[in-house]
Specification:
Blueprint (H helix, E strand, L loop, with lengths): L2 E5 L2 E4 L4 E8 L8 E6 L6 E6 L6 E3 L7 E6 L4 E6 L8 E7 L16 E2 L3 E6 L1
Parallel strand pairs: 2-11
Antiparallel strand pairs: 1-3, 3-8, 4-5, 4-9, 5-6, 7-8, 9-10, 9-11
């Protein structure tokens, strides 16, 4: 059983930074892509970033490119999302997700992911 547990959310002022973490368990972590999605109030869940299992490939939504960085530590079975220059529109619940693919080909639709964490809330004040 794959389990994902996010942490690191909170309240931050616009222009600030946060680092989210997602600890995975239940299978060989390094074989599979990990992704971050977010869902703002009243909006659909949207793709944020993806990193391949071997860490050689990362893909970002245009809205966060240049501000967010996804990384992973396969020894710790953890994926991170470093978020800089935060904006009020980044306010959302952030989820990590995974499935059984390597991540070399970007998959950005939420229906393509089978396993999800419970989410961590990020609030950016103006």
């Amino acid at each position: 059983q794959v389990q994902l547990v996010e942490s690191g959310g909170g309240l931050v002022q616009a222009g600030g930074s946060l680092r989210l973490s997602c600890a995975a368990s239940g299978r060989t972590f390094s074989s599979y892509a990990m992704a971050w999605f977010r869902q703002a109030p009243g909006k659909e869940r949207e793709f944020v970033a993806l990193i391949s299992g071997n860490t050689h490939f990362a893909h970002y939504a245009d809205s966060v490119k240049g501000r967010f960085t996804i990384s992973r530590d396969n020894a710790k079975s953890t994926v991170y999302l470093q978020m800089n220059s935060l904006k009020p529109e980044d306010t959302a619940v952030y989820y990590c997700a995974t499935n059984s693919f390597s991540g070399v080909i970007p998959r950005t639709a939420s229906f393509e992911y089978e396993y999800w964490g419970q989410g961590t809330r990020v609030t950016v004040s103006s």
